[in-house]
TrEMBL record:
InterPro entries documented for this protein: YycH (IPR009996), YycH/YycI_2 (IPR042274)
A Pfam family per the record: YycH
Organism the protein comes from: Sporolactobacillus shoreae
Keywords on record: Membrane, Transmembrane, Transmembrane helix
Coiled coil: none
Name this polypeptide is given: Regulatory protein YycH domain-containing protein
Transmembrane segments: 9-28
Protein origin, superkingdom: Bacteria
Start and end residues of each Regulatory protein YycH domain: 4-422
Length: 440
């Protein structure tokens, strides 16, 4: 083979290669859809542990309601026991609120109600409760955060009503396989007290009418390397490179970063117009598939938008209460996980990179009643008419250095305005009058 023939063959190979690469560039189509999203990664990954759906999506309060008053139970073990009784019940003959029959109206006797931290949608409701009808017709646009079981005026059994967070009936049902005596036993001990209803902006809450004593918690902390999430969040981990040292990663489209002990992931390259039917269960399943529950987390928030972009929040739970960080962005994610879905794909993901283990209870704090807190906030200029939610919880701060091995969780009241949580202590700038400090 002479030199000219060899050059011609080589040139032909190069031309064909160039045509093939050009074709791939022009007609490239991401395999992300076929891949099924980040929750179906081809690489098996286990960050921590999996959870049962009802361990994550669970009520934070159970009430015993009588004409003489309402008693609330917040002890975690007893709330879970009451929740299981509701789960074992069978709900039949579902009727939307506009078709509710008079026989399901409530009598003025004892009833029991569980309240979730945030509203549930149709799909999740069907997964956590037992509906006796094979083709139960729960309204598609249902938004329920509380369920009450009671005796109807007609007698002959029990009934239930599923309500929205503004306390409006969504649908009712007859109930079987549940004992009011078993529910009554939930209130024979634990952490009970009198509660009263209070209407906030677009939500009815039940607040303690007296002081609440809460133990402080000292927690041992460990940090998860952000690169452990690369196989979960990128379709092709081999094509991911790091920048800014080793705190941030990208594949040219998606970006992953460790920002002060908080994972922040964004995928701006999502297109399409597919609507997600239930982002709550979808979010749970995503975390569960990779055993990424690094602590006890509970479902705590849902934001739906008109552009097929839905956000679901899970919050850290220590003992009987959820944990908050109210410092500036992105510190609130130090104790939470927030997933935003767009057209069924994960658009953004913010979550803590710290695991918490309780190691001591050095003292306690006595918190004011809910009404006293609202009065104090109003006196200090907080627009209480704009408060969307309130809760007792733990306040925790970001570790001040990489050498920190423990953090203190302090009891406090929290209130939400414009979808952001605030601490009462931080608002007031000092301890409330008469409040007991943490004992050494």
């Amino acid at each position: 083979m002479n030199r000219e023939v060899f050059k011609s063959i080589l040139l032909g190979v190069l031309v064909l290669s160039s045509i093939a690469m050009t074709w791939n560039i022009w007609f490239y189509k991401s395999d992300f859809k076929n891949y099924g999203g980040t929750s179906n990664s081809a690489t098996p990954v286990a960050i921590a542990q999996s959870q049962k759906l009802t361990s994550v999506i669970r009520p934070s309060l159970i009430l015993q309601k009588e004409p003489e008053g309402t008693v609330g139970q917040t002890d975690n073990g007893r709330v879970v026991s009451g929740y299981k009784i509701f789960q074992n019940a069978v709900f039949s003959n579902v009727l939307p609120s506009n078709r509710q029959k008079s026989l399901l109206k409530k009598t003025d006797t004892v009833s029991y109600e569980i309240i979730f931290p945030a509203p549930l949608m149709q799909g999740t409701l069907k997964k956590i409760f037992r509906f006796g009808d094979n083709n139960v017709q729960i309204p598609q646009d249902t938004s329920v955060d509380r369920v009450e079981i009671y005796l109807p005026v007609s007698g002959g059994g029990m009934a239930a009503v599923f309500r929205s967070q503004d306390n409006r009936d969504q649908f009712s049902a007859t109930v079987s396989k549940v004992s009011l005596n078993s529910l009554n036993q939930i209130f024979s001990g634990g952490q009970t007290g009198l509660y009263g209803p209070h209407r906030l902006r677009n939500k009815m809450v039940y607040l303690p009418l007296g002081p609440t004593k809460v133990n402080t918690e000292i927690t041992y902390i460990q940090k998860i390397p952000v690169d452990a999430f690369i196989p979960i969040l990128f379709t092709d981990p081999k094509n991911v490179f790091h920048y800014r040292g080793k705190t941030a990663y990208t594949d040219g489209t998606r970006q992953l970063e460790n920002n002060s002990n908080i994972l922040q992931y964004v995928n701006p390259g999502i297109s399409g117009s597919t609507e997600m039917t239930d982002p709550i269960f979808h979010s749970f399943e995503f975390i569960n598939n990779f055993k990424a529950w690094t602590n006890n987390f509970v479902y705590d928030g849902l934001t739906l938008s008109s552009n097929q972009q839905d956000t679901v929040t899970f919050r850290l739970l220590i003992g009987n209460y959820m944990v908050y960080n109210t410092e500036y962005y992105p510190s609130p994610y130090l104790t939470a996980m927030e997933l935003t879905w767009k057209n069924q794909d994960l658009s953004s993901f913010n979550r803590t990179l710290i695991t918490f283990s309780s190691i001591d209870e050095p003292g306690s704090v006595t918190l004011d009643s809910g009404n006293e807190v609202l009065t104090t906030l109003k006196k200090n200029g907080v627009p209480i008419e704009g408060i969307e939610d309130m809760a007792i919880g733990y306040r925790i701060a970001n570790p001040q250095s990489n050498d920190n091995t423990s953090l203190t969780a302090l009891p406090d009241w929290f209130y939400k305005i414009n979808n952001r949580w605030y601490s009462e202590d931080a608002t007031l700038g000092s301890r409330r009058p008469g409040q007991q400090g943490a004992n050494p």
